[in-house]
């Protein structure tokens, strides 16, 4: 192995979104955390597989993760009648942030997201950050304020979703009392993590003191996953990349420190 470089002070979080969406995705994420480059994950608490997935994480020695706050997948944790402004006629969430009515009730949103956090905490896992499914936190300024308020209330870091919005960019970085990374790296037009892109991110920041998050969607695909999302085979590609020993060796050679949100 090449000599490890000492000059780099870059810290890198590699977060796996959608823990619990299916058991096979959860299994893949845990494998990537134990044997690969994944340093953190965030759970879809309203998934029917959350309880089994959380127990599986604890059994594997994973004690902390984030909540993937969600208003766009499946059904709410609360009764649909309690959150009528953010569900459709069938009582399910709208599938995209842009479909959530702009007249949504902020109190209902806050209550549902808080219920997701409390359900997570009841599992025995430790909450180490908040992030959001489909970047729903940057739907508008009010939504971002709600998530920021919850990050303060639970005293945990949150993802730099504001980087995804020209109108809201910098809001989290400037907010008092909220810990976060310096940068969230991802390309919405890129359905999978590409090795050339991944190495490019490391090249860009490796000689800086930046704390960077790369978010992906690793996991194992199956028919159940196909029934609930269009992002299926791409997850196995992400997992393969993050399990690549040569890529891990490259990260180590550059002196980049792998961390989780627990270390912010």
Tell me about this structure.
The two termini are 29 Å apart. The chain has one domain: Alpha-Beta Barrel (TIM Barrel). The chain has 264 residues and is an alpha/beta fold. The chain is globular. It has nine helices and seven strands; from the N terminus they run βαβαβαβααβαβαααβ. Strands 1, 2, 3, 4, 5, 6 and 7 form a seven-stranded parallel sheet that branches. The model is unreliable at 1-5 (pLDDT under 50).
Unreliable stretches: 1-5
Q: Hey, roughly how much beta strand do the residues contain?
A: 5-15%
Count of DSSP H/I helices: 9
CATH superfamily: Glycoside hydrolase/deacetylase
Q: Predict the CATH topology.
A: TIM Barrel
Helix content: 25-40%
Total tally of structural domains: 1
Summed over residues and divided by their number, the pLDDT gives a mean of 94
The CATH architecture designation is Alpha-Beta Barrel
Shape: globular
The structural class is alpha/beta
Give the N-terminus to C-terminus distance in angstroms: 29 Å
Our Rg estimate from Cα atoms comes to: 18 Å
N-to-C order of helices and strands:
EHEHEHEHHEHEHHHE
CATH class: Alpha Beta
**Main sheet summary:** 7 strands, parallel
Total number of strands: 7
């Amino acid at each position: 192995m090449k000599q490890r470089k000492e000059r780099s002070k870059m810290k890198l979080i590699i977060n796996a979104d959608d823990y619990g969406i299916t058991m096979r995705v959860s299994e893949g994420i845990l494998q990537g955390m134990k044997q690969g480059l994944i340093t953190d994950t965030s759970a879809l608490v309203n998934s029917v597989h959350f309880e089994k997935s959380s127990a599986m994480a604890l059994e594997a020695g994973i004690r902390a993760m984030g909540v993937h706050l969600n208003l766009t997948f499946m059904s709410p944790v609360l009764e649909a009648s309690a959150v009528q402004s953010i569900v459709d006629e069938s009582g399910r969430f709208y599938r995209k942030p842009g479909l959530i009515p702009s007249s949504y009730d902020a109190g209902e949103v806050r209550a549902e997201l808080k219920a997701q956090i409390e359900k997570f905490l009841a599992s025995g896992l430790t909450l180490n950050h908040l992030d959001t499914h489909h970047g729903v936190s940057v739907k508008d300024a009010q939504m971002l304020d709600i998530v920021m308020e919850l990050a303060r209330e639970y005293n945990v870091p949150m993802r730099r979703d504001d980087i995804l919005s020209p109108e809201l960019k910098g809001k989290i970085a400037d907010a008092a009392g909220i810990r976060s990374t310096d940068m969230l790296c991802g390309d919405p037009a890129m359905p999978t993590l590409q090795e050339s892109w991944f190495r490019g991110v490391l090249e860009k920041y490796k000689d800086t003191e930046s704390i960077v998050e790369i978010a992906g969607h690793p996991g194992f695909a199956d028919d159940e996953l196909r029934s609930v999302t269009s992002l299926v085979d791409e997850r196995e590609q992400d997992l393969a990349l993050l399990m690549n020993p040569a890529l891990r060796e490259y990260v180590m050679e550059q002196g980049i420190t792998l961390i989780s949100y627990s270390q912010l």
